[in-house]
Fold this protein.
Amino acid sequence: MNFLKGFQKIIGEILKKIPIPKGITWMLILLVIYVIYRILTHLIERALLKTFHEDTHKLKIPLRIWRIFFWAIAIILFLAGTGGNLATLGLSAALIGMVLGWSLQRPVTGIAAWLLVTIMKPFKIGDRVIIAGIIGDVKNIGLMYVTMEQVGGTIGGEEKSGRAVLIPTAVLFDNVIMNYTMREEVEESKYILDEIIVRIAHDSKWDVAEKILIDAAYEVTKDIIKETRRQPFIRADFIDWGIYMRLRYYARPVDRQEISTNITKIICREFAKSEEVRFAYPHSEAEITYTARGGEQLPFHPQPQK
């Protein structure tokens, strides 16, 4: 309020000293304000272009916010300079600000989240992310919504469903965000570690099974292996009716389902050819013996009924 009073006093002194009609003086003041606006807008636009790496599509919303802010301040100063009642002006501004702050709480939160995403870049257009439990590829980052092409949803796995999902930017502050494709400057970080679980029987030859799995992964992901220099590897666990062999390899997030399908196809084909490995499945085996007259226990092999 003291600032507005001082501003009003300065404008009054200027108008007294300038020997021209007040109307022309105010037009000159408006012209000066417009020139200042153009200069500041140009400087802000250049700074934003550097921040956004020359992406002009991202300039619209920040410049719109800047225009609203500048002209709101300019109008308040103009009304104060023309001799308006400062007490009434301040009370009206406070009341309007309170009402707008209450009614626009979510939109304001959304704008703050948009600024966070724009400046900090936790994800960008083209990244595969999980937001609010929804997996998708980011297509657009708007002021109010993040538009994603959903992955999965009506189908199993992680393939594109073709559906667009709009996530309100306001929820970004309340949810954990997982980014599949962050830090592209590191080669291996463009890929994620994936795995295929193969259950083999206890009597299978370990070396043969391991070779089949590793060779299958190498055949499908050899271009990724060449780029990342990360070889496929095996991790295993015992289970009651077999062995879990976990084939782990790096895959592109967007091609994860296709890569796992191709590897599985090769593994099934090679297991069918080999007599030294077989898949395990939940089952039970019973061994029956009987005692012969001489006291010797012999296995029981019932004859098939004719």
